[in-house]
């Protein structure tokens, strides 16, 4: 693990989350982003217990700063190349609005996206920390 690079914690049991990680790996041409499951050893070691227990929340850890929910999404998008990085400007919307929509998706994600999430990331294991 390179502690200077942004680290994305995701729910490894969620198909939407796993597919999102696959998409980010494809779009991250400079290999800036690192990934680790919320259920893994890296999350247990780096995240405060209050955050690691939030399995329905995307968490971005970057140089000791923790970004949650929509703010994590917008910050992650800022690391990607154009045109995707332009979406990071949505962070200027009020947080309560963007988090409202984030929470709706988080609540419905397992019902809307069913399947075996653990099989999705097997080919990407070289980019995912334990």
Describe this structure in words.
The protein has 130 residues and is an alpha+beta fold. 39% of the residues lie in helices and 12% in strands. It contains five helices and four strands; from the N terminus they run E-H-E-H-H-E-E-H-H. A four-stranded mixed sheet has the order 2-1-3-4. Strand 1 (7-10), helix 1 and strand 2 form a beta-alpha-beta unit. The radius of gyration is 14 Å and the shape is globular.
List the helices and strands and how they pair.
Elements: E1 7-10, H1 15-27, E2 34-37, H2 41-46, H3 49-52, E3 59-62, E4 65-68, H4 69-78, H5 95-112
Parallel strand pairs: 1-2
Antiparallel strand pairs: 1-3, 3-4
Number of DSSP E strands: 4
Beta-strand share of residues: 5-15%
The main β sheet shows up as: 4 strands, mixed
Structural class: alpha+beta
Measured distance between first and last alpha carbons: 10 Å
Average pLDDT rating: 80
Radius of gyration: 14 Å
Helix content: 25-40%
Low-confidence stretches: none
- Secondary-structure element order, N to C: EHEHHEEHH
User: Which word captures the global form?
Assistant: globular
Q: Count the DSSP helices.
A: 5
Q: Which sequence of strands runs across the widest sheet?
A: 2-1-3-4
Oligomer: single chain
